[in-house]
Amino acid sequence: MTDSVLSVGNICKMYGSRAAVEGLSFEVRQGEIFGLLGPNGAGKTSTIRILMDIFKADSGEVELLGGAPGQRRERVGYLPEERGLYRDQRVLEVLVYLGRLKGVDGATAKSRALTLLERVELEAWGGKRVKELSRGMQQKVQFIACLIHDPELLILDEPFQGLDPVNVELIKGLMRSLVEEGKTIVLSAHQMNLVEELCDRILLIDEGRALLYGSLKEIKREFAPNSVRVRAAALPPDLPGVAGYERQGDVSILTLDGMGAQELLAELVERKIEVESFERATVPLNDIFVAMVRGKDAVGGADRGHRRQ
Amino acid sequence: MKRVLTVAVHEYWVNVRRPDFIIFTSLVPLLGIVALVVSIFFGRQAGGALVRLFDSGSDMTAVVDRSGRFTPVLPRYAAEFVAYADEAAARTALEEETVQRVVIVPETYPEEGDVTVFTEGSRFSGSGTSGLRAFFVAHLVEEIGDETLRARLIDPYDARVEYIGEEGRTSGGVAGEVLGFLVPFLFGVLLAVTIFVSSGYLVRSVAEEKSSRVIEIVLSSVTPQQLLAGKVIGLGALGLTQIVVWIASAAGLGGGLAVLAGILLPLFTRVEVFGLALVYYILGFGVYAVLIGAIGTLGSSFQESQQITGIFIFIAAVPMMLTGVIMTNPDAMVVRILSWFPLTAPTTMMLRLPLAEVPWTDIAGSIALLLVTIPVVVWLGAKVFRLGMLMYGKRPGILEILRLLRHA
């Protein structure tokens, strides 16, 4: 779980006078789902294209599966944001061709394509032309197209785009099972709830630079405000160390000042107040994302150890 | 190389099965077959109808022979010539349209050679006169006992002309001279047609991959150079397939042996011209195919890509437009410039080589420039290809392309 499969060191990419990527460094470890996040135009696609050797970085180092980008194409699966398939060709034919481009022989590619089609519940559609498939079906075919050569590393740019909730669940399940098989996934997505659900670590970039990088759990903990959510019959107004109080339905949100959550809980127990639930308040990743990108610094009050400028 | 071939085979196999390719390729042979069927089954009837329209009866000539040289009519001419004893009877037959003309051969014919012909309208021309000449000659020589001499008098000679060139070698005669020019000229036409046909497929292929957004998936597996090379090979082969089908069908329908002779004769007479034409053809196709494949990616649609690449098809055809100049003065300065410029060199040299002793500097220089141009075009083409394929939306201007190329 600690071996690095992708190591990016201080890469830069300029388009004229505009910097698409500026001094970006990160590492992706074997067997994890790594979230590459950022608003539109942040430099995610440029970064991914550099990783895939579609674009060359102006400077910096990239080591992918122990080699330079482009040297390990056959071990990487890539689902780009701008994607499609040969509309007039049959599904199986397209999958076999894409497999052969990755160096897989025709018979193996066909066998894997049939297995994968079954896995995404499209086994009956292999002989159909791509244009006969619905958009969601095409999305699933695109997804399995990047698995046809059994890659070690998957780079998925917006894999949930255009999928209904049922198919989102299906793809999520597939991603989890791939990770269980030992594969590594770099995931770029705008659905923060899915990122929260799937990713172990994240990199948030904006204007080509890193804003946040590290373990998602730690980032969320660091951004968590010093407050607790308490569900109790009635809370006394004179609780020590409580600087703020807000009622949301039957839940009270208490902002603490000079007192830890453990101490407050002990105080409540001591006063024999009947507590139904007690939890640290957390900030959704979505709020962290929006606040960081907007440059706000008002999300919680913890130390910003993972913040990268 | 394996991936280049995978792309090439895929491009070829996918496009060769397209209904529009099959229809377009079959069109020429089908039209030829239709024409052949019409000419075989209806040609005679149609011809007969035409003859009947302008010619109400058979083509019979009445001969009033007062010299005694042409009667009795030799049996092999009996179907077309009939002897009449007097002029009045013959003219009556002409009025009654039993015969189409009357030939009066006077007694003085052996000394003076004068005859009088009565005919309707313009019916004494073409085959009528040549038939009459053969009739006269055949009857006149009939008196000669020597059969061989008789045959020679009827058909005096069958010439096989051999021209002695500057270096004292024979050049295969007029046919060889004509075909020696014609074959390289046809190579030039073939190059232009191949570029036209293959570029259409290339442009469509890149435009489709771009508009369907499949290109980025493909580029994650192969380099732009490999993809471009695969497309050029696969779709070049597709264009050649189409042309080979057309030529083969034309040869099959129009006489395969004549075409084969036309190709082989110059091969034996001017091997170097044929060989160089082949070299220029391959190099020319390489340069154009890569350029068109790459530039074609800059359009945002198939139609727009076609417009952009149209300029190259025009450039390829420029030497064909200047055929007159090249034929009359193959060493003119403008022709020499066109011979050196890589985009016009292949076609110009194909036209020029059979017409003149082209200085070796022009040949070596133009081939060297083409050889240098190809890797440059491939390198630049791959950059444009990479850039164009991933550029969605409106077509970039020249300045923007140049600016972006620096960063591709």
Helical residues, percent of chain A = 25-40%
- Oligomeric state of this protein: heterodimer
Low-confidence spans of chain B: 165-172
Indicate the structural class of chain A.
alpha/beta
Shape of chain B: elongated
Number of helices of chain A: 9
Sheet with most strands of chain A: 6 strands, mixed
Order of adjacent strands in the largest pleated sheet of chain A: 5-6-7-3-8-9
Count the E strands of chain B.
4
**What is the N-to-C succession of helices and strands of chain A?**
EEEHEEHHHEHEHEEHEEEHEH
Q: Could you tell me how far the N terminus lies from the C terminus of chain B, measured between alpha carbons in angstroms?
A: 23 Å
Number of domains of chain B: 2
CATH homologous superfamily of the largest domain in chain A, by name?
Answer: P-loop containing nucleotide triphosphate hydrolases
Give the largest interface: A-B, 32 and 26 residues
Describe the structure.
The complex is a heterodimer of chains A (309) and B (408). With 309 residues, chain A is of the alpha/beta class. Chain A contains nine helices and 13 strands. The radius of gyration of chain A is 23 Å and the shape is elongated. Mean pLDDT of chain A is 84; it is low at 296-305. Chain B has helices at residues 2-16, 19-54, 87-95, 109-112, 127-141, 147-154, 173-211, 215-219, 224-254, 256-269, 271-295, 302-321, 323-328, 333-340, 345-352, 360-389, 398-407; strands spanning 61-65, 81-83, 101-105, 116-119. In chain B, strands 2-1-3-4 form a four-stranded mixed sheet, covered by helices on one side. Chain B has two domains: 2-32 and 175-407, no CATH class; 61-154, D-Maltodextrin-Binding Protein, domain 2. Chain B contains 17 helices and four strands. The A-B interface holds A 14-16, 49, 52-55, 58, 70, 73-74, 76, 78-80, 82-87, 89, 97-98, 100-103, 142, 145-146 and B 2-3, 6-7, 10, 14, 208-209, 212-214, 216-223, 386, 390, 392, 403-404, 407-408.
